[in-house]
Batch of 4 targets.
Target 1
Amino acid sequence: TRNMVTGASTADLALVLVDARNGVVEQTRRHAAVAALLRVPHVVLAVNKMDLVDYAEPVFTAIAEEFTRYATALGAPPVISIPVSALAGDNVVEPSAHMDWYGGPTVLEHLETVPVTADPSGTAARVPVQYVIRPRTAEHPDYRGYAGQITTGTLRVGEPVTVLPSGRTSTIEAIDRLGDPVDIAWAPQSVTIRLADDIDISRGDLIAPTSAAPPVSREIGGIVCHVADRPLAVGHRVLLRHTTRTVKAVVAEIPSRLSLDDLSQQPSPGRLTANAIGRVVVRTAEPLALDAYADSRRTGSFLLIDPADGTTLAAGMVDDIR
């Protein structure tokens, strides 16, 4: 699960591989759940080893229908199902001569044609500050820039912005990219922003357009995938890492845990064990500027970390900002 969460968190497409002899198993359901929760835009089901079931269409159809029902119930995007034999090369690069009943794309054909480019102007801009640049040299005696990667949206010189969580406002005086000034920058470019006003800003602060600034809160509700061997329980003190900011926090509630068998919610489990998926409520010692994960995969995600040894305990997706 930890590897799946790590990969899916930034993936444009998830390719779920199923053995045609075994069909949908627990690992298949777990991977489908993680892909759906992390809102991977495209999901492909590759039913492999079709040569070992005599390329039978009913076998493929039954597996594809079962997986699609399960993924749809989780809220995953429409699934593309492809019957393949990796050993024989059927429907991997070239269409199979053994499965004339299948008229869809091969795996490579689909991967090469699926759209993965997002419009950066479609969402509000967010710049988590990674580093404050103050060279204080003879050439740049008063230079103060705030460096970071634009996670979403577009920024322009002259645009009013708000620095969070302080709430201080200013205007973008200049944007530097690759050492040169530009009038406009967009995700996922890395830039240095200079503001018209002298504001106390440090690593972990968030720069956002004043007209579309995210809410600030000390209580976060979300779904987490628990990836550590040690359990996560109510009352545990943790570190919460959000973009470039890390704050102390405590697990206030674990309202439910997801059952992968029937997608039911088990109420008040008290703790989450390795590979479990559940809902948590976390209270932080300092305010955080948050988006819902449905709106932004970068500013709507967080990690829970063991403060004793730095082990990652869980990866979370914000869905309730209180």
Target 2
Amino acid sequence: MSRYRGPRLKKIKRLGNLPGLTTKRLPKNDQKKKKIKKSQYRSRLEEKQKLRFHYGLTERQLLNYVRIASKTKGSTGQVLLQLLEMRLDNIIFRLGMASTIPGARQLVNHRHILVNGCLVDIPSYRCKPQDIITTKDEQKTRALIQNSLASSSQNKLSSQKKLSSQKKLPEHLTLYSSQYKGLVKQIIARRGVGLKIEELRVVEYYSRQT
């Protein structure tokens, strides 16, 4: 199954806020959902879909991440979230260098991003502690990043009292905006994940395939 390229508001209306997918928000009238009794399968499916659409993954990619997480020491659900959060496209998004994960993926694909001084054009590249994320020293590249950083800063100022966790810089990252540079300090903790998700339901959904 290919990566989703359809209407984004349609997805957040059904699944809730997906900051990695789109900066758009539903009107207040549409945000109030009627409580519907869901089957266990539907609940697991929706949590899986949240992960898939937020991080911009294909079905096969997400299944591969679940398989890797299940073979890694520790809680499968937590390891899964760490694997997804440490992707290069997501790191760029969380640093504020792109407004969405698809936007961050485009920066990487178009060869604007360097990791530890080396050009990386693979959005799924897994970042590690002490990795330094920088941009090419080109006017066009810097302009793209500056626009996103400025937009992110304005959003923070306009909603200072009700700042969403998705807009805060997570503890495992440091941003040097004047240098267009970010630092990955450590592996992300569960509380720093930028999505409201019940990861155990995702693991349960894939339990027969792993």
Target 3
Amino acid sequence: MHSFEAPPETPPRWSRRPTWRPGVNGLHRLLGKRPPDILTAAVDRWQIAPGNVVEVRPAKKLGGQLYRIRGAEFGGVAEVVRDFIGGFGAMQPPTMGYRLKNVLLTDGVLYAGDAVRHLQRRSARLPVHLVPHDLLDAVLYESWLGNRWFGNWLSDDCLTHDLAAYCGQPFTARAASGHMTAYERALGMHPLRRASARFAELILFDDQSHNDHKRQRADLLRLRLTGGRIDRHPGIFLLRGRSGAPRVLANEQAIAERLAVKRGFTILDPSTASLEEIVRLCGGASVVAGVEGSHLVHGLAVMPPDARAFVIQPPDRAVSALKRLTDRQGQDYSMLVGVGTHEAFIVDGDEVERTLDLA
């Protein structure tokens, strides 16, 4: 990794200057001119890792489950169902690096010439912003999805951070919250944080692919968090409760307790558990189970290579994003679709156990 001396994270107020770029961009939008993505402004680009085909494995499921799906998130029903059926190879693009010059970050938006990329929702619609005078050279690793969902931050942005740390000073505009601080400490992440910045040079990546290079970085993340020391046990049920976007399993506690009594599962609420407890329990679980959502990524990130995910889906908000993680890592994925709506649905305890019995 490169050595660097990080500049102060909060420049003094007097060292700021006005910029009209947000106003100019807003005017272009009013005139119907959609700005291109910021990668089009790159002065240099290179391949970090080649693409490759990933096997999309059939989800382990009882008969008739896919007919229960009435709606999907992050894709159409047909696309989500196809991922659950599996049995095909999905070509993953290469991992790419890009170098840009004269880049501005303000109010969650990157500007380079006429090109733009949104990292966070804008908090204001002012035409002029105050930004720091000083110029930085840095490497961005955050993403819109990682800023929106904790699961994407852990499963994607933390892996991109490895690329950033190799290239220079990792940078993020996102403030740490929740478990993020503990993960950053455990993973040795020391990013420079600023809500606004001017970059003489900025490196960023196209790291959305689930190729072998990303799989290797995910394996390394697991090893760094667990230290390679795990105590195997039957499984863990990660409670979701009412956190995040509504996906309320009305009989969640009853299902979790049934698995604890009959299968020897451990029940854990990751929202109140320490990272040390999460890693210790998830790192040795043969099954990581729970309602679909970002909280399950706590478990998927550290569960053993031969473990499997068991994901309970609401029928009107099915998601296959977590399956793409298990497919990337060559792990099994079991699923059960409930009855009701994402605001209140239930699953049958016998179906839960029959699904876990599938070989």
Target 4
Amino acid sequence: MSTDHPLRRRISAVLGLQPDARAIEYDGQWFSWAQVNELAQRIASVGVDHGQVGILLRNTPAHVAALLGVLLGGGTVVVINPSRGDDRIKADIEDLRLPLIVGSPADLEALVDPTDHTTTVAIAGLTDAPQVSSAAPDTVDDRRAGVAVRMLTSGTTGPPKRIDLTYDMLACSVIGTDYDSAPAPTQPRAGVAIVNAPLVHIGGVFRVLQCVCEARSFALLERFELRRWADAVRRHRPRAVSLVPAALRTVLHSDLTRDDLASIRAVTSGTAPLSADDADAFTAKFGIPVLTSYAATEFGGGVAGWSLADYQRYWAAKRGSVGRATLGAQLRVVDDAGVPLGPDQPGLLEVKPGQLGPSADWLRTTDMARIDADGFVWILGRADQAIIRGGFKVMPDEVRAALESHPAVHAAAVVGRPDERLGETPVAMVELREHVETVALMEHLRTRLARYEVPTDIAVVDQIPRTPSGKADLGTVRRFFEHA
């Protein structure tokens, strides 16, 4: 276990910096760093001998403290999503065979078999003493040296899988490439951040750890909900916020005004594609630049993104790009044989994340991309989601973007459906903000897409199924059309 890692030392230093200072606001109540530290230390003392510790993570201060406590003890947090459906969660827990599981009393009662030989720690609230239920160990002792978090992927196209994120990877992402020598803060940082990303997703863990390592207090939201988010923005006046594309589009098409978001100087957006049209519409409405980025759970954070300086200089010429390499990452585009391609040639994106160190190998992604001579990256769609319709290749993201360009469409998801004659055809699920006939949507698409790209079916739903990270759950969308 990494009991003397710079990330652990930084967390410990911040928790003890100004114990009585405000740390987390949740549901209208502030909690201090001392209160966070007290529960974190209790979790650390229980979990230090267990190696891997499962946490049924929810967006509450107590769960934040539990996450920090396992890291303080040098253990490995195994992320368990308590919102995936009871049967799937129980099967996941059974397969994991963890020696220790932390969660709310209700989650533990519903999801953890009391006859299992697993110790549980119930955390009712940040200021409540955790309730430990000991059990004789009958679990796999599978310690993972150096692994901080076994993080769930978003599960966009299939069941989520776990990715091992090391202490080094997280420290590089939230502190910087000089994390081993970077000095800890000497006083709490001014301003209040807003964390609305779920802790079961890398975005939530990253934001929380970033705030803690910067000694910055933050308002923790259970989930993104427009009114609660807007209220937090008005009260805390952050200079920067992070919104996934679905949330950004919700803000864009709301009745919020420039005055509501007056403090914000930039919005960062990642986890899913965001069209340049939506980014520009947001900037036109609110006067706030949108800085898109490219990241993946496997990388332990971001590997490309826009800086404000780059945006001001290059956006007009390079709109739609996800920016340039960040955090020491290297990016290239290769053909199917792995041969690197030149500027502006489309191919498969490969990445050497800076979080993995200078000796890292190139990682092949499933994303099609092009990189120009200045290093700006455009994501063209996922190669493994391409729909081959009668020999023609259809990229779902291009069809989705065309649908979302219609003023009545709030969001769209596009998948392939088997077809006896053509192999596959594109079909779309749309979530509307105002009524429109599907015939009108088809006509809209015919002016923007090739004939073979136009979906053979469009289903209007109240809400597109989504993963915790806010991406469309394409597996569920695909099953919807299979059963339709």
